Amino acid sequence: MSKILLTGFEPWGEWTINPSGEVASSLDGHKIGGVSIVTGIVPVVHGEDIETVRPLIEQHDPVAVVSIGLGGSSGLNVERVAVNIKEIDSDEGTIDLPVVEGGPDAYLSTLPTRDMVEYIRSQGVPTQLSYSAGTFLCNHLMYSVLHHLRASERDVISGFIHIPPMPEQVVGSGRPSMSLDTVRQGVVAALECVEDHIRHSASV
Amino acid sequence: MSKILLTGFEPWGEWTINPSGEVASSLDGHKIGGVSIVTGIVPVVHGEDIETVRPLIEQHDPVAVVSIGLGGSSGLNVERVAVNIKEIDSDEGTIDLPVVEGGPDAYLSTLPTRDMVEYIRSQGVPTQLSYSAGTFLCNHLMYSVLHHLRASERDVISGFIHIPPMPEQVVGSGRPSMSLDTVRQGVVAALECVEDHIRHSASV
Amino acid sequence: MSKILLTGFEPWGEWTINPSGEVASSLDGHKIGGVSIVTGIVPVVHGEDIETVRPLIEQHDPVAVVSIGLGGSSGLNVERVAVNIKEIDSDEGTIDLPVVEGGPDAYLSTLPTRDMVEYIRSQGVPTQLSYSAGTFLCNHLMYSVLHHLRASERDVISGFIHIPPMPEQVVGSGRPSMSLDTVRQGVVAALECVEDHIRHSASV
Amino acid sequence: MSKILLTGFEPWGEWTINPSGEVASSLDGHKIGGVSIVTGIVPVVHGEDIETVRPLIEQHDPVAVVSIGLGGSSGLNVERVAVNIKEIDSDEGTIDLPVVEGGPDAYLSTLPTRDMVEYIRSQGVPTQLSYSAGTFLCNHLMYSVLHHLRASERDVISGFIHIPPMPEQVVGSGRPSMSLDTVRQGVVAALECVEDHIRHSASV
C-alpha cells in the first residue's frame, strides 16, 4: 500500500503543545483513500529537521511528503514557495544564510496547492494559498525536503501547510485561532486531495 | 431558582446559520452554579429585537440578561458600551437615528465585563474587552435592554457578547473564526462569571 | 470674531514629537471661514488635560472645541463616543475608574461627525468614523470637555479626532502613518466643516 | 557615468494616477552619488512590461534595475522573491501559468535588500522586507527582469519595491497610504543604498 509521510513539529519555547505535532500523531496509521499515513515529529532545530525526515523517506518510500507547522494566520495556509534563505540572529544583527549552499533560489511546492485550497474549503475549513513560508524552520524544512527529493531524483511530491494556533494558546493576544478538530479536518481534506491527485496522475 | 436570560439571534441574509442562536438554544434549561438558563432567539429586525426580549424579562424575571450576537473578531468580544445610534441606509445616504428618542447618549454594560474577560481566558477561550458594539442590531438590542431595565427600575444586570463566525462560514474570506464548541465553552464561562458575581453581590 | 479652540497634546514617553501638538500649533491664529483658530497644547497627564483646557474656554469663549490626539489607525478617526471610563494600572492589575464620578455613562460628540468624514474625504484625506476613543487620555479629555460644556450649560459643540503617527515615528513597526502635511490638511478640512455647520446653525 | 534604471508603472483601471510612475518620472535625470537615474514607465499589461524594459536595458546598459509598483501595505515593501507564477482568470476559474516556460521556480532579488530596509528606515520612511511580490504584474516584471539579466549574463543587479497608495486614493477604504513626498524620499534612499553597494562591490 502506498504511503504519504505527514510530518509535524515538536513543542518549542513558549509553546508547550504544538498542534502540528498533535495533528500529525493523531493521523498515524490512518488510511486515506488508497494510501496509508505514516508520520514523523520533527525537532524545532535547524538541521535536525531534515535529518529527522530524510531517514523516514528512506524507510517508508512515500508517494508524497506533507509537512505541517504552526503559523499565525486565521486559516490553513497552503504554502507555494520555499526560499533558500535561513534568517539567523547573530552578534552583528540579523543575517541571511542559505538553507542549502549553492541551492536554487527557491522551490515551488509540488503538491496540487490550488486544488487543495478549493477542496479544504469545500469541507468547511478556512484556507488560503500563501506565497511565503517565512524564513525560519518551517521554510527550512519545506526547502530541505523539496531539495532532497529533487537531488535524489525521487518522484515524490511535497509541500507545507501552516496551521493556526489552538484557542488556548492565544487567549489574550487578539490573534486568530482554530480548534484542533477543525485543523485536523482540514489536514485530512488536504491529504485526501493529495491522494486523489496521485491516483489520477498514476492512472494517466 | 434564579434565572439568567440568554438571548441569541436568528439567521439572516447570507448567514443561514447563526451561531449565536445555536449556542443560546443549546444552553436552554442548563444549570450554571445556582441559576437556571432560560433563552430567547431574537429576529434580526430593528424593533422586533426588544419586542421579543421584553416579554421574556416579564415572564422569567431574570437576575441577568446576557445577549450574544455574531461579530467579526478573532475571539469573544465582551462589549462595554451601547450607544444611542441606529445607523440606517436611506435614499439620502446613511443617516443616524436614535435607538431611543431622548434616551441617554450611551449605556455601559452592567455585567462584570473585566472579570468575565479574565475568567473566559482562564478557561482557554480567546476573549477581549470591546468598546463598540457597532451601530446595527447588536448595539440596538444591547442599548434597548439596558434602557428597558433602567426605565423599569429592575435590579437586573445586562450586557452583550459578540462571537466570531463558525469556520464553515468564512472558508475563503481570510477572516478569523471559532468553532461552535469553543464559542459555547466561552459563553458558559461568561455565564459562570455572571452567576458568581450575582451570588457575591447578593451576599453582601 | 468667533473662535474655535483647537487643542493638541504635548510629546510624552517614547514620542518626542507629538503630531497633534505640531498641527494645532501650526494653525494658531489662522482664519477658517468666518472664525479664528485659537489653540492649546495639553500635557499628557490625567487631570491636567482638562485643567489646561477649561481656562482656555473661559478666556476665548469659543463656538466649538476640537481636540486632536495621536492614535494608531491609517487615517483620521473622527470620534463619536467618549465613555466614563479611565483605565489605570494598579498593583492589583488594571482597574476602571470613572472620568467623572457620577457622570453619565458616555457622551456623544456634538460635532457634525458624519459630515466631517464626508468632507475630509472629499479633500483627499483618508478618514473614518470611530466609536471608541479608547480608555486613556484622549477619551479622558473628550469626555471631560463635553461634560464641562454640558455642566456649564454653554452652547458650544465639541469632539475629538485621532490622527495617525508620522512616518518617521513608525519606520520599522509595520504600522500605518500619515505625513504631517496630510494630517494638517485633514484637520483644516474638519475645522472648515465645523465652521460651516456653526454658520448654518446660527442662521436658522 | 554609470546609470541605474528606475521603472514605474502607468495608471490602470480605477487608479487614474499611479504613484510608482509619478515617482519614477520625477527622478529622471537625477544624480545619486556617482550614478545617473534613467527611467521607464511600464504599461500594466503582461508581456508588454518586459518588452518595455528590455530595450531600456539595451539602450542604457545600467548597473542596476530597480522597479517600483503600487501595493497595499503601510510602508515600502522591499521584495526579496519573484516566483515563476502568473495568475490568470479564465473561464475555468483562476489558473497558474509560468512567467517563463521552463524558467526556475523563483529568483531572489539581487539588490542589497536587507541593507536597503535599514537605510530607508534611517531616513525616516517606514519600510519592510517582503517575501511575496504577488502573482500579478509586479511579480511578473520582477521575475522577467531578473530572468533576462541572468539569461543575458549581464552583471546587473535588480529587484522590486512595492509602494503604498497615495492618501487621496484610499480616502474611505480604511487602507494605509503614504504621501508621494514620503514615497519619493524612500525611493531615493533605496537608490542611494544601491549606489553605495555597487560602488563598494566595484572597489573590491
List key phrases describing it:
homotetramer, 204 residues, Aminopeptidase, seven-stranded mixed beta sheet, two-stranded antiparallel ribbon, 5 helices, globular
Task: Summarize the structure in words.
The structure is a homotetramer of 204-residue chains. The first copy, chain A, is an alpha/beta fold and 204 residues long. Chain A has a single domain (2-203), classed as Aminopeptidase, CATH 3.40.630.20. Helix content of chain A is 34%, strand content 27%. The first copy, chain A, is built from five helices and eleven strands, in the order E-H-E-E-H-E-E-E-E-E-E-H-E-H-E-H. In chain A, the strands form three sheets. In chain A, strands 2-3-1-4-11-5-10 form a seven-stranded mixed beta sheet, with helices on both faces. A two-stranded antiparallel ribbon of chain A has the order 6-9. In chain A, strands 7-8 form a two-stranded antiparallel ribbon. In chain A, strand 7 (86-90) and strand 8 form a beta hairpin. In chain A, helix 3 (113-122) crosses helix 5 (180-203). Chain A is globular. The model of chain A has no long low-confidence stretch (mean pLDDT 96). Chains A and B meet through helix 3 of A and helix 3 of B.
Question: Which helices and strands, and how do they pair?
Answer:
The structure is a homotetramer of 204-residue chains.
Chain A (H helix, E strand, L loop, with lengths): L1 E8 L9 H8 L4 E2 L2 E8 L5 H13 L3 E7 L5 E4 L1 E3 L2 E5 L2 E5 L8 E3 L4 H10 L4 E4 L6 H15 L5 E7 L16 H24 L1
Parallel strand pairs in A: 1-3, 1-4, 4-11, 5-10
Antiparallel strand pairs in A: 2-3, 5-11, 6-9, 7-8
Helix pairs in contact in A: 1-5, 2-4, 3-5
